[in-house]
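Question thread 4412

I'm putting together a teaching handout and wanted feedback from people who do this every day. The idea is simple: show students a protein as raw sequence, then show them the structure tokens that encode its fold, then repeat with a second protein so they can compare. Below is the first pair exactly as I plan to print it.
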Amino acid sequence: MIFYPMQKKREDYHYKRFSICDYKYQTEPAATPQSILLEALKLKKLVEKINPFRLNQDALFFQLQQLLSEDNLLLLQNENETNIIR
């Protein structure tokens, strides 16, 4: 197979570009009582704004399940911050 100079440059570019990258996925930051409160307030504002007939109830239920997960509820009980519990 004959390699032309442009093909070699292209191969070098793709090698440098794609094979050397270290793909680090961002991890979610650890939940805090404040972050749980902020997420709940964002969700409340969203539900207040949206048309109830166009509301995706399954998506809302999924978000509520994530927000009120067992880990988050245990965190809120253990922290027992009076500023957040209303």
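The second pair follows. I'd like the answer to focus on this one:
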Amino acid sequence: MVLPWLTPKRAPLKFNVRVQTTLDTDNNGKPDRLALRIVQPAEVGEGLKTPVIVRPSIYYGDPSYIGKRQPFLGEDQYLRMGYTIVYADTIGSYQSDGCASIMDGAERQAMAEIVRWLAGDPNAKGFDDNGVAMTATWSTNHVAMEGISYGGTLPIMGAVTGVAGLEAIVPVDGISNAYDYFARYNGVIPDELGVVTLNGYAKTSSMQQPPANCQANFAELDVGVDDETLAYTDFWKQRNTLSLTSNIKAATLIGHGQSDNNVKTKNAVQLYQKLRNEEKPVQLWFHAKDHDDPAWQKEWQKQLMLWYSRYLFGVNNGVEAQPSYVRETPPGDKVAGNLGGESRTDMSDALTGHCNQPRSGAHNPRDCVTSGGILVKEEKWPATEVISYHLRRSGAAGKSLLLTTDKAEGSVEGPLTLGNSVDSGSFVTSPLNNATRFAGTIYVTAMTKFPKGKVDLKAKLFVDGEPVTWGWANPSFYKSLEKPEAIGKDSAYKISIEMMPRDFTVLPGQSISVVIEAYNSRNGQTVTLDLAETALDMPLVRKARPISMTTLQ
């Protein structure tokens, strides 16, 4: 099959459509309609049929958003490749009707209704600005969805409905489980990079004044989030797309920043692993920066073209047989994961690509490619085994703190007490002799007591003093996130602190360290750790099996 490569000089066709749903979320007695702004190659006016790439979002009411969040390969390039681009407002945002409810069944249905109309479902209804019925006769009935952040969450929601015609999705930095993003992390309101509440997000993120009829809906959200217990309730279960992945038919290309501490890496890794276990077509690109798409990687750009040509045009290019896991390693095996990730504003000669070319100020720094980074492709997320580092005291009077794989090394002495502004101190390994790779979720398991009442815990992992990952735990959920338990002052509890997934290598001569603290200890609460029963559990990669390694330049 020969793919189209259309002239760039012809003005595209542009028009609006409102897709009618069976929902009435604002309770005004009328079906909610969803606003689509459609851009097509000029050749559609001469009979060309095209597949469709949808860019759904909640943010189009922000005039600056579309400039910041362009289609991944650029609108002009998609048009030249023969795609129609659709900018879609999710329910309750910008030009769409209804009330925002965030990641629930109504929003999933809204995404599916858009696909049905674009894929030629005879029961799907669309109307122009004058209310005249319209059908997508120009569509090949093959649809993809792509986006970043909440715009990357919406394609997942559409896909888990199993809607016919949705052939591919490309979620970048998307949310797979609302509980793992909206002011929640294992029963704790986390403190890194601020807090986004689901009920607050529903009210404000659409950048417009919600209809008055939405106030009752928002009141239900205020109650449903359950900020009192922070438990994983039915309200949150309804917003967990991972429970619905068996319905997904769309080939899923996931992108996520290893240093993304906004939409935390757990969201991408757990979605990838769930789809991989279900033998669905999926690939994860774990890039080295933060909350952004890896547009600087030409390999990523090629992959998008392959993904869409395979699943929208039906080209047998073999993309489904490619390695399912791709990760970017910064130059010098620098550990990715720190807040903010790799700098995008350095215009020095250490960067190649657009950055050090004449008149480079005309280019966005995010287009820079760091010379010497490596793109590693593997068949799947690597197999790991747990290696435990024990927390010990050492040295004179036990003043030094040690992290060791030898349980007999050092001493435990008495319990370690943590309180307000008093953390554990830094438990540090000896410098490692060999390059050692860890890939997955890291845990601190500790036997704890709370003599002055319950307090949450936080752990932070470092490599040579640079923060790599962190996590939190609420002792009330030591049995299950679904129901908080009473915490007695004289009882011991085994608590597991789950950190955000990472994939990194500790080089010879570098050291690992961990710090534990009592989190939100505002009323004098303390926690004691029994070091004899406290360990850092790391997912060790014994043997890597890379299929290919490409130096970025």
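Top answer:
Good format. For the second protein you could add a caption like this: Confidence is low (pLDDT under 50) at residues 339-369. The domain at 385-541 is CATH 2.60.120.260 (Jelly Rolls).
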